[in-house]
Amino acid sequence: MKRRTFRAEREFGLIVGLVFSLLGFWWIYRGKFLNASYLLAVVGAALILLGVVAPRILVVPRKAWMKLAEGMAYVSSRIILALIFFLVLTPIGLVKRAMGWDPLYRRAGPRDSFWHPYPPRQQNPRHYEKMF
After folding, report:
1. Higher confidence at residue 4 or residue 69?
2. Rounded to whole angstroms, what are the CA distances from 80 to 87, 88, 91?
3. Per-residue confidence at 82, pLDDT binned at 50, 70, 90?
4. Angle, CA 14 vertex, CA 11 and CA 16 arms, to 5°
5. pLDDT computed for residue 120 by the predictor
6. What letters, b where the CB count within 10 A reaches 16 and e where it falls short, cover 3-12?
7. 94 φ/ψ sector (left φ>0, alpha ψ -120 to 50, else beta)
8. For the chain, what is the largest distance between any 2 Cα atoms, rounded to a whole number of angstroms?
9. For the segment 26-37, what is each residue's pLDDT rounded down to a tens digit?
C-alpha cells in the first residue's frame, strides 16, 4: 500500500498561513482593521503550525479553499473574457466593418466564379522553401 505524504496540504498550510500572517501583521503594524488583522494573524499562525506538525488535519480546509478558488476562477474568467470581447474586439470589428473590410468577399455581386488568383509571391515555387 502506498503511503500518502500530504505534501499538498503541507504546502497549503505553509503558503496560505504565511500570507495570512504577513497580511495580518501588516494590518496590525498599520493600525487598520484591528479585529480582522488579529484574527488573520492567528489563523495564519495556526495554518503554519498545522502545516508543519499535522498536515493531515488540513485535508478538508484545503479542499474548501480549492472549491473557493474554482468558483472565483469561473466568475472572474467570464468577466475578463467579456470585458476583452466588448472593450477590445467589438470596437475593432465595428471600425473594420465601417471601413468596408470584407476578407471573405461576402458583399461581392453575382459572378461566374469567385476564384481569386494567387498573388505573384505565392506563384513562385521558391516561396514554399522558406515560408517564414
Report:
1. 69
2. 10, 11, 16
3. very high
4. 95
5. 85
6. eeebeebbeb
7. alpha
8. 80
9. 999 999 999 999
The answer for residues whose C-beta is within 8 angstroms of residue 46's C-beta and 6 or more apart is 17
| pTM given for the model | 0.65
C-alpha closest to that of 64 among 20, 3, 16: 16
Residue 57: exposure state from Cβ atoms within 10 A (0-12, 13-18, ≥19): middle
pLDDT at position 126 over 90: no
Q: Indicate the pLDDT class of residue 121, thresholds 50, 70 and 90.
A: confident
Mean pLDDT on 57-68: 96
Please answer whether residues 58 and 50 qualify as being in contact, where contact means their C-beta atoms are separated by less than 8 angstroms.
Answer: yes
Contact 17, 45 (CB under 8 A): yes
Concatenated DSSP letters of 78-112 = HHHHHHHIIIIIHHHHHHHHHTT--TT-TT----S
Cell numbers of 127, please?
Answer: 516561396
